[in-house]
Amino acid sequence: MINAIDKPAIFITPDYVIHAVNQAYIETYNTQVILGQSKCHQISHHSNQPCDKHGEECPLQQCQSTARAANAVHIHSTAQGKSYCDILMKPIKDDSGKVLGFLEILDAIDYASTESKKGTMIGQSAPFKQMLNRINRASQSTIAVLLQGETGAGKELVAKAVHQASSRNDKPFVVIECTGLSENLFESELFGYEKGAFTGATTSKKGLIEIAHGGTVFFDEIGDVPMNMQVKLLRLLETQCYRAVGGLKQKRSDFRLVSASHKNLLELVEKGEFRRDLYYRIAGFPIYLPSLRERHDDIPTLVNHFIKYSEYKHKKFSANALTLLSAYAYPGNIRELKNIIEQSALIANEDIIHSSDLPESVQPQHIIIDEKKSSQTAAADLMSLEDAECAYLSQVCDQFKGSSAELAIKLNISVRTLYRKLQRYELKLSVL
Ligand SMILES: Nc1ncnc2c1ncn2[C@@H]1O[C@H](COP(=O)(O)OP(=O)(O)OP(=O)(O)O)[C@@H](O)[C@H]1O
Question: pLDDT (tens digit, 9 = 90+) per residue, 339-381?
């Protein structure tokens, strides 16, 4: 029975022991499993303890307590290194309803990675994993996906992942940037035009919607579509039919819809700036993208990733600079982090990038007090006292050229307290 499943699958009893694996599992994971003996966590996590003992959800336990199917995104150790996997666990019952064991179906996620890997989304924090779970779910259907997240949080990358993981991945992925689209441009760009439709239309041109046939259309910043064009957009999305500018023939395009906005669309609906019917048409399956502030744990891996794929791959950030980078709030999210890394690498004269090479916005005095900002923005950017202390100490450590005793006197604390704080924030004095 297990071999009838085309994805990798295993059968486990409640004591975590694997009793059967299918052909797809053997081909994908190439791992030595001793049936009736190996436990799932030993094989997938190289650990003697179940997943929930080392920070991951255990779908087997969930399944056991509810007697219903459970799902989780896990990081598995495979012959090729660590990789993401979407797990579906189903209880298998006998005729009397007694649970005999669990069927685990594994779906490899190759558009995301825990470590630096070109062309993938990097991260391993809990909010990132929750997002992956939603992306994987969305990609298995043709439901309209709405991506909501701050600017620079990775909406375009997620839209591409939804497409890549779907059955349409061999067809086009077309991006339509909605910001600044005038009515004329909107129609000619989306629907194309016929020869002679307007002055300058010397040949006919295909529209983006036609190009996307069979694939996915990504409407970026859909909240910026003006009211008068929202009606036309709704008609297109409802019927998938359109007419080229200057054309008479009705055309049809089969496309999967993914939209994104950094604005709160429901608030726009309440204010009467976005049509409610259009909102419900595009928001079939909302996916929230966490800001970088919510996934601070991912910063060091992202820093390594961006430096590795930049022209400064031989350079490295000092531990103090990394601490400062981790304490910053990133209103521009991952895009801002990427810029900061490239800027600092360019500024650094040596192969080590020190905290003094980081741009002013990241420096502690800027993070702590920026009087020019409105009180509302300043409140949003406020950092905890602990983060502020850590950021300040990290800069001091890079710049202070004296002994620890001298520094302790300057900071008006004992040398022991200084060492305790340095240890706590994993900082080092440049001259000790
Ligand atoms: N998880 C990630 N791992 C690696 N790089 C990422 C990740 N998320 C985003 N990026 C990178 O960050 C940059 C910004 O991402 P993207 O353009 O997708 O953001 P966005 O939310 O669409 O921004 P905007 O709202 O301004 O359109 C890109 O260079 C992208 O490759």
Answer: 999 999 999 999 999 988 999 888 876 554 444 444 454 555 5
What separation in angstroms does the CA of 416 have from each of 44, 155, 360? 43, 46, 31
> Distance, CA 29 to ligand 1 centroid (Å)?
30
Is the shortest distance between the CB of 299 and ligand 1 below 6 Å? no
244 and 327 inside one domain: no
Q: Are residues 184 and 279 in the same domain?
A: yes
Q: Which ipTM was obtained for this model?
A: 0.96
* Model pLDDT, residue 431: 58
* Least confident segment among 63-77, 203-217, 293-307: 63-77
- Nearest atom in ligand 1 to the alpha carbon of residue 220 is 27
Residue type at 365?
Answer: Q
Distance 81 CA to ligand 1 centre (A): 25
Examine the domain organization and report whether 156 and 225 are in the same domain: yes
Q: Are residues 145 and 263 in the same domain?
A: yes
**Residue that the structure tokens 């996590």 belong to:** 45
Residue 308 is assigned to a structural domain of this protein: yes
Model confidence pLDDT, tens digit, residues 190-203: 999 988 878 777 88
Q: Whose CA is nearest to atom 23 of ligand 1?
A: 152
Domain count, the chain: 3
324 occurs within a structural domain: yes
In a domain? residue 206 = yes
Cα–ligand 1 centroid distance for 338 (angstroms): 9
Cα 230 from Cα 224, distance rounded (Å):
10
- The verdict on the CB of residue 335 being under 6 Å from ligand 1 is yes
Ligand 1 center to 119 CA (angstroms): 11
152 and 36 fall within a common domain: no
| CA distances for 41 relative to 14, 19, 89, 102, angstroms | 13, 14, 14, 14
More confident residue, 145 or 74: 145
Q: Is the pTM of this model over 0.90?
A: no
Q: Which of 129, 334, 339, 342 to mutate to test the pocket of ligand 1 (most atoms within 8 A of CB)?
A: 334
Query: For 279-309, what is each residue's pLDDT tens digit?
Result: 999 999 999 999 999 998 999 999 999 999 9
250/298 same-domain check: no
- Tally of CB atoms within 10 A around 67: 11
User: Which residues lie across from 242 on neighbouring strands?
Assistant: 251
Range of the domain at 209: 129-288
CATH number of the domain enclosing 196? 3.40.50.300
Summarize pLDDT for 420-431 with one digit per residue, the tens. 888 888 888 775
Q: Is residue 432 part of a domain?
A: no
Q: Please report the atom of ligand 1 found closest to the CA of residue 128.
A: 1
Do 154 and 279 lie in a common domain?
Answer: yes
Q: Domain boundary residue among 288, 317, 342? A: 288
Q: CA separation (Å) from 19 to 35, 75, 97, 426?
A: 5, 22, 20, 45
Atom of ligand 1 nearest to the CA of 157: 18
264/323 same-domain check: no
